[in-house]
Write a structure and sequence with these properties.
This protein is an alpha+beta fold and 162 residues long. The chain has a single domain, classed as Vaccinia Virus protein VP39 (Rossmann fold). 31% of the residues lie in helices and 26% in strands. The chain is built from five helices and five strands. α2 links the parallel β1 and β2.
């Protein structure tokens, strides 16, 4: 959290450390809630989504980014990180916690969140930085991700509270 505060050039953000399953905010408090690169790290994503929906105002937006649960995402995200980032924390990503898009849609609808858009998200594998990463087992500064039509590895999007 200290790093985020240091990088906040606006100095207008209030930072809180809280339990994602029990946020310290009143119902209907926010226009937007973001769960970017979070859902695949929690054992009960339905509780996080339930809590996000609780604090969202009507017509509020819930933004997300997560990983699909399939063999390709297992290879790219779990094994790829093990290979290319040897100092990454063990079990940084746990395959059973990955979420299929159809599962996420169901979790959203259960909490009165209508998914509006889902977009694929993947590493730029056809790039020199990707090749360097494979050869050196280190992530180059210019390594990046791009949007994709396929939801096979990662995906992001948003839902609207109704």
């Amino acid at each position: 959290m200290e790093v985020a505060k240091q990088r906040d050039s606006t100095k207008s953000v209030e930072y809180f450390q809280a339990n994602a399953y029990k946020l310290p905010f009143e119902e209907l408090s926010f226009d937007v809630v973001c769960a970017m690169d979070v859902l695949e790290h929690v054992e009960e994503p339905h509780l996080l989504i339930q809590e996000a929906a609780r604090v969202l105002k009507p017509n509020g937006l819930f933004f997300f980014h997560t990983f699909n649960r399939n063999f390709l995402s297992f290879l790219m995200i779990i094994k790829g990180v093990e290979w290319c980032v040897p100092n990454a924390p063990k079990n940084m990503h746990v395959y059973p916690l990955f979420i299929k898009p159809c599962e996420l849609k169901g979790l959203l609808l259960k909490e009165r969140l209508q998914w509006m858009k889902m977009q694929g998200f993947r590493p730029k594998i056809l790039s020199w930085s990707f090749v360097k990463m494979l050869m050196r087992k280190k992530i180059p500064k210019n390594f990046g991700f791009c949007f994709s039509k396929s939801l096979a590895t990662g995906y992001c999007g948003y839902a609207k509270k109704f």
